[in-house]
Records
---
Amino acid sequence: MLVVSDIHLNHVEDNRSQLLLHLLEGASRSEVEYLVLMGDIFDFCLGSHPYFQRKFDSIGKALEKVVQSGTQVIYLEGNHEFKLASLPWKGVQIISEGTHVIHLKSGETIQMAHGDLIYSHNMYRAFRRLVKSPLVTGVARLLPGAWMDNLATKGSEVSRAQDQYRQIEHEKILGAVDAWLEAGPGDFGIFGHFHVPYAEPRRDRKKGGLFSVECWDRPNVLAFKDGRFHRYYFDSKAADAETWQPAEPLVRKLLPGE
């Protein structure tokens, strides 16, 4: 099982896109049970608009090739993505909302969601529902794609410029994710959105854990193998810089009472 999230692609010619295409080519030649895209793979994409269908056609073809190799490809729509189910990508399973659960052949159950659906403020959730509504996305489909693309890209750049000033509320995030995992059937819970590489034991001390996928400011893959999650960091400039690392606890080093 391979998982990527929060790549925030702008152009199919840039380094991030080329790294993703390299990863997908490798996945299509390997025995991978699941490839999961946890959302915000694109910095902005309206899947029902012909402009974005053309712009990201190479990514779609690469994902279709992974599907043809026998891997199940699951794409959870992020907050930067809209109407992805309208993309003409054969065999790619699009999850527009909510939590999705898979059962690995090795026996583990994994539940997953884009992180903003697990922890966010009420005003944000209302805004998310509005911009993803059929009315707004329907009107957006009538607008020039290049204009929307440019506007959304500039908005994302302004938002990311504020990231260094934002305080990450680890305990609140993990508390919400704990409750989400405990309410579901998963042994493991994985999520994206926060750009933080969480790897925490379960609060209820059951088998499994909580894992989030780091953003592609440092290109990486989260992989489940041999009963645990590992992170794979890679560099487009130096093949010998590619490394596998165990996904270790980031915040919750030890549970209370241990």
---
Amino acid sequence: MSKEFNVAIAGATGAVGIEMIKTLENRNFPVKNLRLLASKRSAGKTLTFKGTEITIEELTEDSFKDIDIALFSAGSDISKKYRQAVVNAGAVMIDNSSAFRMEDDVPLVVPEVNPEDVKLHNGVIANPNCSTIIMLVAVAPLHKAKKLKRLVAATYQATSGAGAKGMAELELQTRQLLNEEQISPEAFAHRIGFNLIPHIDAFYDNGYTKEELKMLHESRKMLHDDELQVSCTCVRVPIMRAHSEALNLEFENEITPEEARELLAAAPGVIVVDDPANLVYPMPIDATNQDDILVGRIRQDISRNDKCGLDIFVSGDQVLKGAALNAVQIAELL
């Protein structure tokens, strides 16, 4: 790549924004100028990119002049507010929020899963939900080979999914609980220290949460399969920053664990970590700060009379592959 690009990051001071800055640097993305945008209260502070201090600017309608690519991680409302300003400036918005994911003219992209969809953009490309990204990087190679019919997922989602305040709350509560102090939950509906919360995002009338239905609708959109059946239970766990998922997969065609391991070993963005005899399997502690998704516990579903079912376990860094890295990879595709 000899061409260089002017890049803006909206939400530069958040957990994902900071990771985006690091990812652009680590992957040596051809940045000509980097513009860091945040709220008025952060304006004037500095962050470092490639050894240079960059002053944070207040995000306004005029922030996108001469920008080629705008990475957004500032929440749905901000993305909706500035979409037109980005497009009018001739830039491409890569949006990390849920604002536009299900719009027909906005491609929803994971580069390892559906890179060709990038071409369909009209100025906006959406980054999928972090749990969907981590799941599909592992599932897509199996789907392409054996046609996935149904997927049942239980997620174990880190506090980083609720941003820096979620991680800070886990740290604080752990200390408070060990010191037998009073705690008062703020970032989560209940105590997260030494607890699990089977609730992420708002509940719908059918008993599922918004997070769980995102995994259904986003998977169908990216795999181009409206018949795919998906059922999820999303759980917040007292982990810092990598999500894990237990996945039960049903295929149209027979597949053995050996075949699955071969397909996954050859797939981009995946590391097979599957040696139970030596206690080797995916864990969030090993997935943290890793670009790739760890996949293991690959076994035949013994509840079936055929060989069309598998169970697998995956772990992936929610802040990296689940957000910042995926957005930068989309920029690389562009």
---
Amino acid sequence: MRVLLFLLFAFFSSPADAQQVEVITLEQLQAKAANQTNDTLYVVNFWATWCKPCVAEMPYFEKAAKTFATQKVKLIFVSLNYAREQSMVSDFVKKNKVQSTCYLLNAGNPNSWIDKIEPEWSGSIPATIMYRHGKKVFFREGEFTQTELDSIIKNQNQ
């Protein structure tokens, strides 16, 4: 009986909501954020598991997602790890209890797609871009503090 209870507990208490990070193309990413014409603010953060500043600021984005959960704000993490590292990225997301949507971008040579996302982007990460009504409303390379991020989301969401 104890073994059965243990197995049931282990099965149902395992993070069923832990996401498997989906590998997507640039076109799929644009359809999920840049090309949305509704009034939701799409906050897209580009990061990688090997990028210390990216990992350091992830909790700020997660907290912002909770702060603005009742508003029309959607946070999307986009990993720039290699597509072959999908399971590693999924494990990272699970280990760090990331609740926001996370994709792994498989778009080939960054020199061929960075300008399609943002012509001013040098390619360094972390980088964050925000869209509303199908238009870019904000772009920044580099880290945020929690206060900066919350303030920018608040201002862009008005």
